[in-house]
Amino acid sequence: MSEPRKLEVLRAIVEDYVHSREPVGSKALVERHHLGVSSATIRNDMAVLEEEGLIAAPHTSAGRIPTDKGYRLFVDRISQVKPLSAAERRAIHSLLEGPDDVDDILERTVRLLSQLTNQVAVVQYPHSSRAVVRHVEFVLLAPKQVLVVLIADTGSVGQKVIDAGSDVANEALMLLRSRFLGSIAGTQLDLLPQVLPSVVALCPPELRGLAQTLAHGLQSLSDNSREERILMAGTANLARSNVDFPLSIGPVLEALEEQVVMLRLLSDMGDDPRGVTVSIGRENPYDGLAEASVVATGYGSGAKVGILGPTRMDYPTTMAAVRAVARYLSRILGG
Amino acid sequence: MSEPRKLEVLRAIVEDYVHSREPVGSKALVERHHLGVSSATIRNDMAVLEEEGLIAAPHTSAGRIPTDKGYRLFVDRISQVKPLSAAERRAIHSLLEGPDDVDDILERTVRLLSQLTNQVAVVQYPHSSRAVVRHVEFVLLAPKQVLVVLIADTGSVGQKVIDAGSDVANEALMLLRSRFLGSIAGTQLDLLPQVLPSVVALCPPELRGLAQTLAHGLQSLSDNSREERILMAGTANLARSNVDFPLSIGPVLEALEEQVVMLRLLSDMGDDPRGVTVSIGRENPYDGLAEASVVATGYGSGAKVGILGPTRMDYPTTMAAVRAVARYLSRILGG
DNA sequence: TGTTAGCACTTGGGCATGTTGAGTGCTAAG
DNA sequence: CTTAGCACTCAACATGCCCAAGTGCTAACA
């Protein structure tokens, strides 16, 4: 038995199955692909593939479908990246236009990616650990309520309403604002916990209580901006692509709603800087995603973009789309 | 035939059907509810109800199920609000605790409401048309990039990165900041379009170009904050509640993803200040929601909260939950 | 006039049975 | 190592049958 042909057979099975959504048999295989051998030979090859756990038969007399392991081998060794169509290139390119606002860009990115792949697209907000404090603002909303705003040089803005406990004088607030601003402007967000206490200590004693509260607010804002968030689009694709072949959609929706789960998932995936990473079926750390695959890659300074879909998906095309989108995203947001 | 009994029969049908998910027949009806008459009588009543379009039979020899019109009559005239359980009250009450931040509160609200009702919960951000400018901030991110921040007295913060075209001096920016701040602090957001031009006109000629750009940014921010957004949770409930009985979930997910559709839907619903409004099945203006119902009500100063679920839902309980949550929400966010 | 019992009729769902066709594994020959 | 041939398996489909649930109608009744 020839090793190359065995792989060729696996490829054919994967491709046919992805396309037809039905178990594929030896006969159909020789007809649709010009492998130069008979169906009997294919059958032998398939028996070997099955022994190796790369394909499986749903029941005795049906064709074979790829296993998770089979898909894994497929994406690792067999598949070649498909070039994007002109229309797709154009669509991605148009991402370059429009406002620079991070939220806007990410929003459009997920929409685009979900349309491109017909899957659920997910994007993680850019990491801001290297972000630096640019501006601090305290705004008195009500006698005892202060709005704390923290602006980073990345353009990300965090806001939070805090309860001061007692009435706050606007002058005091302005004083504290310039104190804080003077001391922490230019400081990395993740260094704030170390810097803030000393700022508080230097405040006039009568303002120290308020300063403490405000410092607390600022810190939780910086935590918050480091706390990663995700954006997604295309959940309807889950329902569409599974009319015939039910990947049970409930658990998947649950996973998608739990940002924590998705974040964990994305960050657990290796970060091969050259290409996209794929996590297939039961490889996923979350049970609800046992029938789903995630195709993701990093962009910019380490955040992830990707898609989630049924294990039975068109990996080459999907991978190409994810990679292309990530590249453009890096370019726009600046590496 | 007695009119009250007819309604009683309809109520029984709705309740049984919601509970069992199966067409309900005359015999089962007399067994489960102590209507004082025989099944034959019920059959007569049912024939009338069917003639009036309130119930329908899926096929000749099956029980009846309520039509959209039947549900409508049910919620309008028959159903009585169910009191919430103690646990539910407690859950809602705990909403009162925790930070005052609008985003946080709304986030927790949708989660709670989706758990309470086992449906998809939706909440509209509070209207801010009456909001007033509290603060304006311009931050130089890069030589030609300015971050414009607009803070309203409601605590809502809008941000936007704008491209200045040419290099910007920080001093100029600070000057403009105090000009703008002085002129528009206290102005209602929706009056900005009228006020901003005069501010620009009063600027020193050499800064007028920049001022114009900034004014433009501010205005689009105010538009943006008036532009309404929604938050939702519990989409997984769609899948769960429909394992047996398929409301085709795809179109519904699509609708949910299109904020425009949902906003339209919510605002099209009347705003009965005393109670919740229900839109049933084909009453919905969006085709994808032909098998879905929306239960919503206003809170605070006119924004909506509600849930979306299959037409076959437990209206009394759901309505009670929505109403209760809306009340608490109003209380927290202030009327 | 409204209610009831009785009954003939309809029909979807469950079940047992039969048939088909795709697909397999094995064997023996090339 | 490949191939043709063949017996075998089994899901999917079809057919026929029966049953239970449910209806509509009619005639009797209060």
Question: Overview of this structure, please?
Answer:
The structure is a homodimer of 335-residue chains. In chain A, helix 6 (102-117) packs antiparallel against helix 13 and helix 8 (192-201) packs antiparallel against helix 9. Chain A contains 13 helices and 10 strands. Chain A is of the alpha+beta class and 335 residues long. The first copy, chain A, is 48% helix and 17% strand. In chain A, a hairpin with a 4-residue loop joins strand 5 (145-152) and strand 6 (157-163). Chain A has a 5-stranded antiparallel beta sheet with strand order 7-3-10-9-8, sandwiched between helices. The first copy, chain A, has a 3-stranded antiparallel beta sheet with strand order 4-5-6. Chain A has helices at 3-20, 26-32, 39-51, 68-78, 86-93, 102-117, 170-184, 192-201, 208-226, 235-240, 249-257, 259-268, 315-333, and strands spanning 55-56, 65-66, 120-124, 133-142, 145-152, 157-163, 230-233, 277-280, 292-299, 303-310. At the A-B interface, strand 4, strand 5, strand 6, helix 10 and helix 11 of A face strand 4, strand 5, strand 6, helix 10 and helix 11 of B. Chain A binds a DNA duplex (30 and 30 nucleotides) through residues 1-2, 23, 25-28, 37-41, 43-44, 46-47, 57-63.
Write the layout of secondary structure elements.
2 copies of one chain form a homodimer.
Chain A: H1 3-20, H2 26-32, H3 39-51, E1 55-56, E2 65-66, H4 68-78, H5 86-93, H6 102-117, E3 120-124, E4 133-142, E5 145-152, E6 157-163, H7 170-184, H8 192-201, H9 208-226, E7 230-233, H10 235-240, H11 249-257, H12 259-268, E8 277-280, E9 292-299, E10 303-310, H13 315-333
Antiparallel strand pairs in A: 1-2, 3-7, 3-10, 4-5, 5-6, 8-9, 9-10
Helix pairs in contact in A: 1-3, 1-4, 2-3, 5-13, 6-13, 7-8, 8-9
Chain A binds a DNA duplex (30 and 30 nucleotides) through residues 1-2, 23, 25-28, 37-41, 43-44, 46-47, 57-63.
